[in-house]
Amino acid sequence: MARKARRLRMNSQYLLVTLLKKSLRHPVVHDSVWESGRKFWCPFCQKEVNRHWTSDNETVQNGGFLEHLSSKEHHRNSYKFWRQNHLNEERRGKILLREELIDKFEAKSEKAMVTYREEKQNSLKKAADELKLEEDSRWRMAWHHEQMVGLTLALYCGF
After folding, report:
1. For the chain, which end, N or C, has fewer CB atoms within 10 Å of the first or last residue's CB respectively?
2. 17 lies in a domain?
3. Residue 17 in contact with residue 95, Cβ under 8 Å?
4. In this structure, is residue 39 part of a structural domain?
5. Is there a contact between 29 and 60 (Cβ–Cβ < 8 Å)?
6. CA 27, 28, 30: angle at the middle one, nearest 5?
7. Does any domain span residue 93?
8. What is the residue range of 15's domain?
9. Residue 91 in contact with residue 14, Cβ under 8 Å?
10. What share of the chain is helix, strand, coil (3-state, %, to 5)?
11. End-to-end CA distance of the chain
12. Which tens digits make up the pLDDT trace of 4-32?
């Protein structure tokens, strides 16, 4: 029974790692408050690790998870875990990442963060332009209203 439960947990770990490895190709960037402080439990290292990379203004989705999978500590602990639990050694490679992959991911993440900042600046500029147009429109309406009130007053008073 315990072996079957362990196998189910391992299969879910493989699935999770497989899904997250796909994010190596296309890093996703969010605001810095997006899932702030979210952690995941690594059963091999027996500790909580940050799930995402977070800077002052941006968060790279699953960056911390992928970085952990490539760490020497994770490699060492997964080896111990495999030995202690007599698991199939061939499957261990599915939960590990090479450092070269994480280096490429970091480079892609930097580019994605720059693109995210530019898009955010453009959307803020667009919103500011829309607000300015609305303010100008209101000012013109108020000016015309004032002119009409003055004209009406002049006609009424006989000027």
Report:
1. N
2. yes
3. yes
4. yes
5. yes
6. 145
7. yes
8. 2-122
9. yes
10. 70, 10, 20
11. 101
12. 555 545 556 666 677 677 778 888 899 88
The conformation of residue 88, written as its DSSP 8-state character, comes to -
Asked whether the beta carbons of 47 and 99 are under 8 A apart, the reply is no
In total, how many domains does the chain have? 1
Q: Kindly report, residue by residue over 80-127, the tens digit of the pLDDT.
A: 888 887 777 777 777 788 888 888 999 999 999 999 999 999 999 999
Tokens standing for 54?
A: 């977070």
The residue to which tokens 């875990």 are assigned: 81
Single-letter amino acid, residue 127: A
Judge whether 51 and 64 are in contact, CB under 8 Å: yes
Residue type, 21: K
Type of residue at 43: P
- Order of strands, sheet of 53-54, starting from the edge strand that comes earlier in the sequence: 29-31, 58-60, 53-54
Q: Is residue 104 part of a domain?
A: yes
Q: Do 58 and 138 meet the contact criterion of CB atoms below 8 Å apart?
A: no
Query: Length of the chain in residues, anyone?
Result: 159
How much is the pTM? 0.68
